[in-house]
Amino acid sequence: MTHSLDTYFQQHRDAHLAELSDYLRIPSVSAVPEHAGDVRRCAEWTADALRRAGCEHVQVLETEGHPVVYGDWLHAPGKPTVLVYGHYDVQPPDPLELWETPPFEPQLRNNKLYARGATDDKGQLFMYIKLVEAWLRTQGTMPVNVKFCIEGEEEVASLHTPPFIETHRELLAADAVVISDNPMIKKGQPAIMYSLRGLIGVEIEVIAANQDLHSGLYGGGVPNAVHALTELLGSMHRPDGTVAVEGFYDAVLPLSPEERQSLANAGEDEEQLRRELGLSALFGEPGFSFVERTTARPTLEVVSISGGFQGEGIKPIVPGRAVAKIACRLVASQKPEEIEAVLERHIQRHTPAGVQAKMKRSLSGNPYLTPIDHPFMRAAAESYADVYGVKPVFTRGGGSIPVVEVFGRLLDAPVVMMGFGLKEENMHAPNEYFDLDNFDLGLRTLARFWDKLGQTRIGQ
Amino acid sequence: MTHSLDTYFQQHRDAHLAELSDYLRIPSVSAVPEHAGDVRRCAEWTADALRRAGCEHVQVLETEGHPVVYGDWLHAPGKPTVLVYGHYDVQPPDPLELWETPPFEPQLRNNKLYARGATDDKGQLFMYIKLVEAWLRTQGTMPVNVKFCIEGEEEVASLHTPPFIETHRELLAADAVVISDNPMIKKGQPAIMYSLRGLIGVEIEVIAANQDLHSGLYGGGVPNAVHALTELLGSMHRPDGTVAVEGFYDAVLPLSPEERQSLANAGEDEEQLRRELGLSALFGEPGFSFVERTTARPTLEVVSISGGFQGEGIKPIVPGRAVAKIACRLVASQKPEEIEAVLERHIQRHTPAGVQAKMKRSLSGNPYLTPIDHPFMRAAAESYADVYGVKPVFTRGGGSIPVVEVFGRLLDAPVVMMGFGLKEENMHAPNEYFDLDNFDLGLRTLARFWDKLGQTRIGQ
C-alpha cells in the first residue's frame, strides 16, 4: 500500500519542493517584533497547506504570543490517534553577511535546499503535511487518526505553548505525539531520540558601588563588581569542568551500561569534531564521553557576561555593576525549580564580601524521557530500517524542545522523536539547509510508520 | 607686592569667570572623533588667552593627535623658569541625562561653576593664565620666567605628549614643572601630591571554539570561553583582594612609618566613603588603609569584561570568545614593562586547557615621586599656609598623569603638583563643577608661590 505513496511522492516532487520553497520564503522570525506580521502570515500559510492536504477543522488559534495552527483528520475509528507537533517559526538569520545566498530566498544546490528554516523545522514539518495529502489522494483514507499542533514560538522558548496545550487538552488528546525536529546521527544513519535535556536560564547581577568609580582614585580600595562576579562564577565549576554547585547532581540517575553502549553507537568522532571547532582539546566532566556529556549529563554554562565600559579602548574604572547569564541543561530526573533553588543557595553562600548578588529566573523547561521499548518506538525503528536499510540508533538529545515534556505529561502519551535533519545543516547558523535525500527517504519512512501504527492495538 | 595682585583678582573676578565660561563652552572632548574640530578650536582659544595675558612666542604646535599649546614669558634673567603644564581637553560628558544643566553650558550655582572641564582641568589651568595677566598688568614683570605647555590628549592617555616633550626638550627646558590637576584633601585643607601611580592597560582575549556553539548540542562537551576567562581572571586575585600574579609586588618598596603617618593625615573618613558609595564594606589588600591601598599600593582591576550574546534575554550558547580589559595602577618602584611581563607569564601559566589566551598591551605610564624636601615643594607648602591658614598635607595620588614622570625624567626637573580641585567635584562624572572659593584662594596662593620661587637660588 505504501508503494503507491512512494510513487505519489516521486511524481509530485517538483511541486512539493516549489511549495516548500514558498513556505521558506516567509521570514517567520519569532524573536523579532518587526516580523510579527510575517509570523502570522506563515501561520495562515500553514493552515492553508493543511486544508489543501485534506485536513479538517483547520484553525489558527490565538495565544498571548504567536498563534498555533491546528487541523485534524479523524476518520479511522478504532485506530490510534497521532498528534504531529512542529513549528513554523524560525531563528533570526543573523549574521546576514555569512549567508552565501539570502536566507529567505530558497536555493537548490547539490540536492540541498538552502534557506532559514529549511531543516529547523519547516522542511521536516512539511513532510507530514505531504504525507496526509499522499494517503488521502492515493488511498482516500489513512491508517491512523491524525492531528496537527504547529506552533510559532519554538525558537523563543515556546513561552505560550504549554498553557495552550493545557487549555486545549481535549482538542489535542492523542495516543502518541510525533515530532521531527532532531538530527540523525549522520547521513544514512537515522536516530530516534528518547530523551531531551531540560533547560533553565537565570541572570545574575552583581552590584558593588552605586556607580562606576575612577580606578585611580578608588582602585584597590573598593570591591570591583567584575572581580566579584568572576569569583562567584568561578566557584560554580571545578577546574576539571564538573559543576561545583552543591546539590546540582543530586537527582541525576546514573547511566546504565546499556545506555552507555547505545550512546557510544551514536557517538561523534571526537577528534574530527575537535578539529572542526578549531579547539586544541574538547573539555568536560571527566569519565564521560562527549556524547554523554552533551546529552546525558547536566551542564551549567555561562552564556554571556558583561561589565564595565563596553566601548573601544580601556576606560580605567572600577565597575560598579556586572551581569552574567547562565543556562543549565538538565537531564531526566532533575527538576528546574530544584536546580534554580540550589543555584540561588550557592549564590547566597558564595557572593564575595562587599557586594550584592541577585538572581533572576528566566527560561525553564523540564527534561523528558520516553521508554525505548514502547510499541510506537518500535514501529518507528522498523520503518527507518525498512527504508534506510539500517537500524536507527536510540539517542538522547542535548538540547531542549520545551513542549516535549509538557505533551508527555499533559496528554499522557509517549513522544516519538524521529528526525530527518543532519547536524551539519546549520540550524541556528548561516547557510541552513535541508538535504533532500532525507526529504525523499523521510516521506517513505513516515508512510510506513503510519501504516505500522495503524496495526498496533495500543491506546484504544 | 602680591597684595596688588589680590586686588586685581578681586576687581576682575566677574570678567575672569565670564572668560572661563567661554572656555568651558567649547566641547573639547578628546576621546570622540566627532569633536576633533572643537578640540582644535579650544587649542586656538587657549593660545589667544595666553596672548591676551601677555605671553610671547605663543604657538599651537602639531602632534600626531590633538595639538599642544605653547607660550612663554622669559624676561626674568637669573630667576628660575617654571613650566606650567595643563590640559584643555575634557572627558566625554556621558551619561548626559544625569546632568542637572547641560555639560557645555556653564552655570553658576552657590559659588560653584558647573560644566564639563570646570575642575579637570580648564578651571585650574585658567588660573595660571590669569596669574600671568595679573603680574604683568600690575607689576609689568614677573618674579620667575614662565613657560606653558598645554596639551589636548590628557583624557585619552596623553598618547602623543611624551614624544612631543622629547622632541621639544629645549623649548620646554625649565627648573620646575608645576601642575594643578589633583584634588585637595577637602575644602580648606590643601594638599601637595608627591607621588602618582603609574598605569598599564592590557586586553586579554580568550578564544575557545571558532564560533559560538548551541548549548544544547555542545554544552558540557567543549570549553566555554567565558568560563576560561573567569577562571583566568580569578587566578589573578586571592579572595582577600591581594594580587596573586607572581612577581607583581616584587619591586614595591615598603612604606616608611613617616609616610604612613603622612598618608593617615591625608586619610579619608572610610565609614562616610563606604556610605556614599552604597557599599556594605570597603575592600582591599589586608593591612593597609583605604588611602594606602589607593595611592601607595599597586592594584590590578578588571575594568571591563564581555562575552557571549549581549542582547536582551538569554541566548543559550557556549561562547567561543570572551574579552577582558585590565588596568594596573603601579607605584614608584614598579616598571610598566616588567608588570606587563609578569602578567603575560601569569596568563601563559594559568590559561585553562583547551583555550587560547592572547594579551595585547595598551596603555602604559610610569609612576613618579618628587622628594618632599625640595625647595620648590617647600615654597608651594608655605604659599598654601599663607593663604589657606593651614599647612598642606603631602599626599600620594592614586591616579596617573602619564606625562608627570616624562617631564621629571626628560627635563630633569621636580614636578610640583598643587591642586585646587575637590574630590566631590565630579571629575569624569556628570555635574562636574569647580568650587570658586578655591579659584579665589588659588590665585592668591599661586601669586605667593611665584613670588617665593623668585627668591630661591635653585636651578641656575
Any low-confidence stretches of chain A, pLDDT <50, length ≥5? none
* Quaternary structure: homodimer
Shape of chain A: globular
- The CATH architecture of the largest domain in chain A would be 3-Layer(aba) Sandwich
Amount of helix of chain A: 25-40%
The level 1 CATH classification of the largest domain in chain A is Alpha Beta
Classify the beta-strand content of chain A into a percent band: 15-25%
What kind of sheet is the major sheet of chain A?
9 strands, mixed
Count of DSSP H/I helices of chain A: 15
- Rg of Cα set of chain A: 24 Å
Describe this structure in words.
Two copies of one chain form a homodimer. The first copy, chain A, is globular. Chain A folds into two domains: 2-196 and 367-455, Zn peptidases (Aminopeptidase), CATH 3.40.630; 198-252 and 298-364, Alpha-Beta Plaits (2-Layer Sandwich). In chain A, helix 2 packs antiparallel against helix 4 (122-139), helix 4 packs across helix 15 (436-455) and helix 5 (161-167) runs parallel beside helix 14. The longest helix of chain A is centred in the C-terminal third of the chain and has 20 residues, at 436-455. Chain A is 36% helix and 22% strand. In chain A, strand 4 (107-109) and strand 5 form a beta hairpin. Chain A has helices at 2-11, 13-25, 36-53, 122-139, 161-167, 169-172, 215-218, 225-234, 257-265, 270-276, 290-295, 336-350, 375-388, 402-411, 436-455, and strands spanning 56-61, 68-73, 81-87, 107-109, 112-114, 145-151, 176-179, 191-196, 198-207, 213-214, 299-308, 317-318, 321-330, 356-365, 368-369, 393-397, 415-418, 433-435. Chain A is built from 15 helices and 18 strands. In chain A, strands 1, 2, 3, 6, 7, 8, 15, 16 and 17 form a nine-stranded mixed sheet that branches. In chain A, strands 11-13-9-14 form a four-stranded antiparallel sheet. With 460 residues, the first copy, chain A, is an alpha+beta fold. At the A-B interface, strand 9, strand 10, helix 7, helix 8 and helix 11 of A face strand 9, strand 10, helix 7, helix 8 and helix 11 of B. Strand 11 (299-308) of chain A pairs antiparallel with strand 11 (299-308) of chain B.
